[in-house]
Amino acid sequence: MSLLDNFSGNLDDLKSTVKDFTELIKNNSKELKEQTAIRLEISKEERKLASMYRDIGETFYKEHNKLSNHSNDYIESKIGEIDIVVAKIESLKMKLETGFTAEKTEGDFKSGKPESIVYIDEEDLNK
Q1: For an engineered disulfide with 108, which of 6, 74, 116, 123 has Cβ 3.0 to 4.6 Å away?
Q2: Could you tell me which residues come within 8 angstroms of residue 116 by beta carbon, excluding any fewer than 6 positions away?
């Protein structure tokens, strides 16, 4: 009977190890998914930023003579938009660097901390 008891104990240990390993994979997958979503959001914001820079450059080039004589609200509004996008990109990069986990993110969402929540459009995930 001792051999059967040892086998049963080893089987229980194996089950426990497999269960722990499965849970670890599940948690890592969730974290990887969230990090990928943040990287996608960073990429989206960087493309938006590049487009804004291009728009400013084109507008400045087309109207450079007018800028010296008149104030250009368009340029000022684009600069404001760029500042917002740059801040968002930096915030997302900081989130990745701090090594947040899915559990921390879920806790922040439940506690209602809006600065800790990253919103990603459904259509962005499907691209």
Answers
A1: 116
A2: 105, 108, 109
The span from the CA of 90 to the CA of 20, in Å, is 35
Q: pTM of the prediction?
A: 0.48
Number of domain units in the chain? 1
Q: How does pLDDT run across 52-99, given as a tens digit for each residue?
A: 999 988 887 777 656 555 566 777 787 888 889 889 999 999 988 887
- Cα distance between residue 60 and residue 67, in whole Å: 8
Domain that holds residue 108: 2-126
Q: Among candidates 48, 38, 37, which has minimal Cα distance to 97? A: 38
Q: Report the phi/psi class of residue 120: left, alpha or beta, with left for phi > 0 and alpha for psi in -120 to 50.
A: beta
